[in-house]
Amino acid sequence: MVEPVVEQAGTLDRGDGVLLAYRHRAGATPGVVFLGGFNSDMTGSKAEDLSAFCAEQGRAFLRFDYSGHGASGGVFAEGTIGRWLDDATLMLDRLTAGPQVLVGSSMGGWLALLLALRRPGRVRGLVGVAAAPDFVTRIEAGLTAEARAEMDRTGVWLRPSQYGAPYPIARELVREGHDHLLLDKPIPLAMPVRLLHGQQDPDVPWQLALTIAARLESPDVQVRLVKDGDHRLSTPRDLALLRQEVAGLLG
Q1: Mind listing the pLDDT tens digit for each residue in 168-215?
Q2: Which of 36, 54, 61, 174 lies at 20 to 30 Å from 102 by C-alpha?
Q3: Which residues are catalytically annotated?
């Protein structure tokens, strides 16, 4: 039996002195690239399970932390969708070769769609897990008068979170995010797309998956709704479903 290739940890300089942390395993292509969520990191259960899956299959696998996230340098509150998209593009360009399946969780689903638009020739397929394109518009619409005042006064609003301590939502994140909106027009992608979404998701409404599917121009788009699934979709059954969808795109 051939032993799986060990996952290598490293950093890449973004070009401004900020070091971006990653873990990469060489292997067969198409490979898999995991894009994490907002205020998340590359050590979550979906990333860990996909790493193990790719090791079993002998597939290349890449996961990383955007600037201001996890083990990467930079300041979280200074991040924007465009900056994190540039981080993801750097990782794809520098650390992978050949076709890749992008797996994007929550905000990572937005970034995966944007990355596929930027590098369509490199993307074999895309899986969104509670994908949250255009989430800045929902944040903006839900701001209370007090939160707006705090953001105007300090440039940052500390948003309460059920997953831990409050985290900052920067005014620039919301403003710049409008430059990358996708759902107000057709999304010109031709590759297969799979969208997984829990119907008990308290953060991103499951109906958004149907909107994304309707906007995509690809003829091969499938939506899988998990009736009792939450936002994270990280139960053993959820992870098995994710493996199944990724395997189908790998061929």
Answers
A1: 999 999 999 999 999 999 999 999 999 999 999 999 999 999 999 999
A2: 174
A3: 106, 201, 231
